[in-house]
């Protein structure tokens, strides 16, 4: 904290934002290239690849409330939420990188492996992302600090998307080798490993600088608070809140359109333009 009571040091606000940058640049590999990887690198038929993605996204949706419930019940030695910034990122980094592998096994075994890697990766993505957001009000106790942290969160997330768009495909093609015009297995694997490592470093950095905000003693005190609303009560209140429903519908439509465009861009440059080197200029 700075000398002004209750205010966070400005550099720590920027440090918090770096985790959103690392997270965004890693997750963009999934939203932009994973369907292309399944069909054109792992050589899984399109219909089966679509089924894999559907199963994985449903599984991810189911995991979200489970992860949230576990986080509220578990108290670890490094803080209630901060602990997950230490534990989850290395597991996420390894399993996320394994999503971009193409084992020399039967298609059925390959599918089981990729689905398992996806679900493990996204289970721990939920742990680390929820923990990062839970730290926001703990770090920003002053309204001005919360505003600044929220602004930096958006800025760093946007920066991740912009930078990813320019550098991801050139890096993939570079590691694919041989002046490749189409991305290959080695390029995807190494690029994902690099971006996952960036995520790991930035989350561990936030873990390091946030010790004063989420002390183990405070976590224990939080755990002893009276129970809040049940899941049923929360759902009941949510579905009786028209502005909240409108927000969910609007954000869902935005997500669908964004993922549709980003997910098909790799195919466009591969089969229409016939040169993925032009992808960064789209």
From TrEMBL:
<dbReference type="InterPro" id="IPR039672">
    <property type="entry name" value="MFS_2"/>
</dbReference>
<feature type="transmembrane region" description="Helical">
    <location>
        <begin position="84"/>
        <end position="105"/>
    </location>
</feature>
<dbReference type="GO" id="GO:0008643">
    <property type="term" value="P:carbohydrate transport"/>
</dbReference>
<feature type="transmembrane region" description="Helical">
    <location>
        <begin position="156"/>
        <end position="176"/>
    </location>
</feature>
<dbReference type="InterPro" id="IPR036259">
    <property type="entry name" value="MFS_trans_sf"/>
</dbReference>
<keyword id="KW-0812">Transmembrane</keyword>
<protein>
    <submittedName>
        <fullName>Putative symporter YjmB</fullName>
    </submittedName>
</protein>
<dbReference type="Pfam" id="PF13347">
    <property type="entry name" value="MFS_2"/>
</dbReference>
<keyword id="KW-0813">Transport</keyword>
<feature type="transmembrane region" description="Helical">
    <location>
        <begin position="13"/>
        <end position="36"/>
    </location>
</feature>
<dbReference type="GO" id="GO:0005886">
    <property type="term" value="C:plasma membrane"/>
</dbReference>
<feature type="transmembrane region" description="Helical">
    <location>
        <begin position="42"/>
        <end position="63"/>
    </location>
</feature>
<dbReference type="GO" id="GO:0015293">
    <property type="term" value="F:symporter activity"/>
</dbReference>
<keyword id="KW-0769">Symport</keyword>
<feature type="transmembrane region" description="Helical">
    <location>
        <begin position="111"/>
        <end position="136"/>
    </location>
</feature>
<keyword id="KW-1133">Transmembrane helix</keyword>
<feature type="transmembrane region" description="Helical">
    <location>
        <begin position="188"/>
        <end position="209"/>
    </location>
</feature>
<keyword id="KW-0472">Membrane</keyword>
